[in-house]
Request: fold
Amino acid sequence: MKRRDIVLGLGATTLLTACGQSQAPGIATSKTQRFEWKMVTTWPKNFPGLGSAAEYLANAIGEMSGGRLTIRVYGAGERVPALETFDAVSRGAAEMGHGAAYYWKGKSPAAPFFTAIPFGLTAQEMNGWLYFGGGLELWRELYDGFNLVPFEAGNTGTQMGGWFRDPINSLADLKGVKMRIPGLGGEVMKKIGVTTVNIPGGELFTALQTGTIDATEWVGPYNDLAFGLHKAAKNYYYPGWQEPGPTLEAIVNKDAWNTLPEDLQAIVSYACQATGSQMLAEYAARNQQALQTLVNEHGVKLQAFPDDVMAALREASDEVLEELIANDAFSRKVYDSYEAYRMRVEQSTRIMEQAYLNSRELP
Amino acid sequence: MKRRDIVLGLGATTLLTACGQSQAPGIATSKTQRFEWKMVTTWPKNFPGLGSAAEYLANAIGEMSGGRLTIRVYGAGERVPALETFDAVSRGAAEMGHGAAYYWKGKSPAAPFFTAIPFGLTAQEMNGWLYFGGGLELWRELYDGFNLVPFEAGNTGTQMGGWFRDPINSLADLKGVKMRIPGLGGEVMKKIGVTTVNIPGGELFTALQTGTIDATEWVGPYNDLAFGLHKAAKNYYYPGWQEPGPTLEAIVNKDAWNTLPEDLQAIVSYACQATGSQMLAEYAARNQQALQTLVNEHGVKLQAFPDDVMAALREASDEVLEELIANDAFSRKVYDSYEAYRMRVEQSTRIMEQAYLNSRELP
Reply:
């Protein structure tokens, strides 16, 4: 267990309060001082939605600070490889990073709770937990042990279940299917008989087209269309049970954070929150356009996973989560907070947003 | 038709671009200049969720600007009555306002599209239209005729259908029911036989308890619990078809806007967007808590409107919208943009968020 039990001085549930608290005493905070930061990311430079959120964040900070804090964004591999983002910011090789917490499961089994877990919270529910349910405090407690301050800074909204070369008519059809699905979703799929592999995004199309894999999940219509996955498989499955509302993170090296005057700390915090909203809006608008194109121009067949598949996935998800937190007290603490909130918020979502959405389906 | 056909120089779909464009030439923009603004609002001071969003916005701007732009928030009636917010900011009696566009239907029939319309967009869908679907451009075009610059600055998420003293088992049970439901929702209800009245929020509880009215809608569990409506009626209906994702607005007097240097304009813009996310998070978290209290401690009976009621409401909603836009070319233009987007986004929401939410219901 690598988490160290240091509590950050940032234990507030709202950005508002969080911003003004961690001013390190004795550090120069002149309003004329200029800061030039590097932001390393887990995305290809300007990758639609994901990379563009990082750019939006950097631009927002630059504009609001009038150039006092400028941030240069590096795509994955430009400065450090995607999956070294966390370590690079932790040791100060870059002041800031943009990515997703579930990439750092090797650092702590609790990390995925701050992005998405199978059958977990949607984007809006997740923000409720982070900002008003204690989630952000737990996240900051965890990352403090790595010299990092995390922020919510993006969300794709609910993703899609994935592309399958052959239709899945029942649970039996999934046995032996070779699917690219990383993370906890992959562990769940493995439990119900799927052979899971991890393949970098750039190789997905060819792997699916040549039959090296039978299926893959990626993101949703907006990103999947850009990758051309519809040319390699026609069966497009929903829902995206594995990532119902994945949160992206901005991480800031704590020493760098402490050198910022309070107004620039506030700018970074609120810019992250604005980026979260902007990215959800982008996905809402771009997904609907891409879906039209996929269905109307490329003959993609939209299909729901059969009920027995969904039931098996959910049961397996519970097992995977239990195993995840089994040997780590902090992960258990995060799980307890998340689960208590999830069970209650599902009830309010059910009679509010969900009931409304379903009412649009009435004849 | 009061809208004047002046196109604002702010015709960008993203905040990012919008921020830097309207710098009036020749106006002093020193970074040492301090601005003290008044924000009038349509909410009681610090009213949970609504008034607190206005405070969050003002605080965000104050913190990020390091005190260069400070905003004093006035509750409804403190400086001007709630429904004079628009005019007060338009003529410069206050530099800024916080409210909701649908209160200004008397100024333009198009106004409600920028808050919520019956059977319209959810919060996430709405933000997609505003930021990436041309909605914000249309909104700015409309308000430019009133010397105002509007921003998205809050959303309650999907509301509830309302409180009824007697259960509604079919459409027939609604005939003659006396209900407080303002705006377009009220016009729709009227078409299906409900007698609608408008009563200020503060008098709702007594009116419902004494039987002056038989039913009322307000917001959702968080605000309704605070008002004690469950003590006057036990039948709590969903879904909130009349306000599926109402957007709140911040409005800025255009002359005041043009005196701000670019960095402060950016701070106002992004602070509004951050407030939108914060408010949705607050409602997600607080609604789930309040719902538990209502059901478990106060014996409130959650009920879905019967299908025949929902069908009649939807049909009547279409009629109300047609009448709304019938005699106003700009409203027709807004409607066309909104409707084209709505029909497509309903399809992507259906297979993404909605399908996921429904999968949580499987046994």
In short: Residues 147 and 255 of chain B are 8 Å apart (CA to CA). The first strand of chain B starts at residue 35 and ends at 41. Residues 1-29 of chain B have pLDDT under 50 and may be disordered.
